[in-house]
Design a protein that fits this description.
CATH class of the largest domain: Alpha Beta
Distance between the termini: 57 Å
Strand order of the largest sheet: 2-1-3-4-5-6-7
Strand content: 5-15%
Radius of gyration: 25 Å
Largest sheet: 7 strands, mixed
Shape: globular
Number of strands: 17
CATH topology of the largest domain: TIM Barrel
Length: about 650
């Protein structure tokens, strides 16, 4: 390979090189996204001076202040009346009330003023904008409280957090309608990056004059650079909705500190930029790293310090300064074993400033936004790695490694000691039953009391006895994929479970006091209307029999890295390729010969699920949830199918 000619990067001495890892807007507001914590802990374990910043949280907390809202007001007032949405109009009419209440509400959601819950729950404290309209479902002043079904007469704190979250969502709508139409709290400019074959939409957005949110993010970026004086900046981008913010951060660093090299990585990069050939991305960043970041980052540190050539970078895209071509450097070095990646650290992140929101009343989804959870991985990758809808060809799923239970509990103890918090979200693709059993036994042996939840496969290894052991170790909730709730389609997607098996496993968890959430899918290749109706009947029975307490239907999406995307003919579909222009590639359209209108079916599925979770409609014929153009077929599933499965022989340990 000919010698590469990279843009000149000043080299830092080993003793002075500091790595700054940044979480860009937008990710979660209730807890830090864990990637920077993992990288910072790993680097510190290798003797590297590593620090981290969460600029997603910083952006929101800067805007949601009396001063920040005053700046928003100035922008909103300048809009022509025809461009003022109902959210903006309400904000301008009640801006004084918003400025008076924003600081107390933020303090309440940060857990610093719990007594405010009584005033918020009383519905007389907050300005109630368009987001609150959904609560007024009765239209009768004498009607019972529309939130009573969710919170009862004593749940003031949860009710107040839900109302405060609606209040913040009203303000998010104002930021979207008055400043940037691409803004949302959990994603920002997602359409600019998600499966976007061309960099052009991002390039146009980044070339525009900065608006208020850009300006705030610039100030936060410059403050972080001034504070830490890094020799390398790492931007971790987990989702498409964090790409725009990451590149605005990079743009600011390039303009003010061009000598600081910048690396881009994370889940989005690992999934969507694997065929990257767009040189314009390198106007913003110097390196783009793929897959597990530890080994590429160590190689990159040596390169930045003049100890390694560009040719010996690991899974890293660079741009040749002479030819302008993008090249992937793939020097072969073994990855860092999962056992040796070290303990993540949240040191440097403002753990007391995250917002405990209550957005969705779905009991499992609320865990995602309610409270600050220490995120930890039990194993690298997925031990099953066969599901045809999943990106099993990618490293983050296909490479499976574990650590010992002793190592994992050592990490848990260190994290509890650092953060003072005992709640853990295990963020595995599917936590392996053997490791969960060993982990539970080790937690109990050490008498270490934590609360934890995570994602699993509903396989037969999870016996009632194991469910009880997990509950004793602190397990409060588990989620898993039932997907299409059809044995034919479960076999086609190589899920490795049956509906009746899922029923028995989930019932065991429920009886152990563990909340169970089922991920459900519709629109899988060759799925018929009949199979969709039958799937909903299975789901109805699972709720009716107390197997699951929570669920969510999402529409199947074909990705280029999944078995369906790699071999569509085997699943009876044809791909609808979009011309690739050198940037992102992931979701891909397909044509299904069944011709089913899955969008129309999805409306009924989601409505039914919402009601089932609240114990409503469980006696009704499932056909009543669908409003189809053609007659809806009667389910073929007997109404006692799940009950009979549960009455059969139960597995033992």
């Amino acid at each position: 390979m000919p010698e590469m000619h990279l843009a000149e990067v000043p080299l830092a001495g080993t003793s002075s090189l500091r790595v700054l890892s940044i979480i860009p807007p937008m990710t979660q507001l209730n807890t830090p996204y864990p990637s920077t914590a993992y990288l910072t802990g790993f680097l510190r374990g290798r003797g590297v001076d590593a620090v981290q910043e969460d600029l997603a949280l910083g952006l929101v907390l800067t805007l949601l202040t009396p001063t920040g809202l005053e700046r928003v007001q100035q922008v909103a007032k300048a809009l022509p009346p025809s461009q003022c949405s109902p959210s903006v109009q309400f904000f301008l009419q009640h801006v004084v009330d918003y400025q008076a209440t924003i600081a107390p509400v933020i303090a309440f959601l940060q857990g610093r003023d719990s007594t405010l819950c009584h005033r918020i729950a009383g519905r007389g404290f907050l300005p109630e904008g368009p987001r609150f309209a959904a609560l007024e479902v009765y239209g009768d002043d004498q009607a019972p409280d529309p939130l009573a079904w969710a919170f009862g007469s004593l749940g003031h704190h949860d009710k107040a957090r839900h109302l405060a979250t609606l209040y913040l969502n009203d303000l998010a709508d104002v930021l979207r309608d008055a400043i940037d139409p691409r803004f949302e709290f959990v994603r920002y400019g997602e359409s600019l990056a998600a499966s976007q074959p061309s960099f052009e939409p991002l390039a146009r957005a980044l070339a525009q004059a900065p608006h208020l949110m850009d300006t705030v993010l610039q100030d936060l970026t410059l403050a972080a650079i001034q504070k830490h004086q890094p020799g390398l900046v790492v931007l971790s981008v987990p989702f498409p909705g964090a790409v725009y913010g990451a590149l605005r951060i990079a743009q600011t660093i390039k303009a003010h500190s061009p000598q600081v090299p910048i690396a881009l990585g994370g889940g989005y990069v690992n999934t969507e930029l694997r065929q990257l050939s767009e040189p314009r991305l390198f106007d913003f960043v110097d390196f783009v790293c793929l897959d597990a970041g530890e080994r590429p980052l160590l190689a990159l540190l040596e390169h930045v310090q003049g100890m390694r050539s560009a040719q010996r970078l690991v899974r890293t895209f660079v741009r040749d300064a002479t030819s302008n071509a993008v090249r992937l450097m793939q020097w072969q070095e073994p990855d860092i074993p999962f056992e040796d990646v070290g303990t993540p650290t949240w040191d440097g992140l403002p753990l007391d400033r995250y917002l405990s929101l209550l957005d969705m009343l779905n009991p499992m989804h609320r865990l995602w936004s309610d409270g600050r959870w220490n995120k930890l991985t039990i194993a690298q990758g997925c031990y099953w790695k066969k599901c045809s809808f999943c990106d099993v060809s990618l490293d983050y799923i296909g490479r499976y490694e574990t650590a010992t239970a002793q190592t994992l509990v050592d990490r848990i103890e260190a994290i509890v000691a650092e953060t003072g918090q005992t709640g853990f979200h295990f963020v595995d693709e599917a936590a392996p039953p053997k490791m969960l059993k060993a982990l539970a036994q080790e937690l109990l042996r050490r008498k270490l009391h934590i609360s934890w939840w995570g994602n699993i496969r509903f396989e037969k290894s999870f016996t009632p006895q194991l469910a009880e052991l997990l509950a004793q170790s602190g397990c409060i909730a588990l989620s898993g994929g039932l997907e299409v709730a059809s044995d034919r389609l479960l076999a086609l997607m190589q899920k490795g479970v049956s509906v009746e098996q899922v029923a028995r496993v989930t019932k065991g968890f429920s009886e152990a006091g563990i909340l169970v959430h089922a991920y459900l899918m519709y629109g899988f290749p060759t799925q018929t209307v009949q199979e969709t109706v039958d799937a909903l009947e299975y789901v109805r029975q699972l709720f009716e029999n107390g197997c699951i307490q929570s669920g969510f239907f999402h529409r199947f999406t074909c990705t280029v890295h999944s078995p369906v995307g790699l071999n569509p003919a085997a699943y009876g579909v044809a791909l609808e390729e979009t011309p690739f222009a050198g940037f992102a590639r992931n979701d891909i359209g397909f044509s299904d010969p069944t011709g089913v209108d899955h969008g129309q079916l999805g409306v009924g599925l989601k409505k039914a699920m919402y009601n089932f979770m609240h114990g409503l409609g469980l006696e009704e014929d499932v056909r009543s949830w669908f409003a189809l153009d053609a007659p809806c077929p009667k389910t073929r599933i007997k109404r006692n199918t799940i009950a009979r499965a549960l009455a059969g022989p139960r597995a033992s340990a």
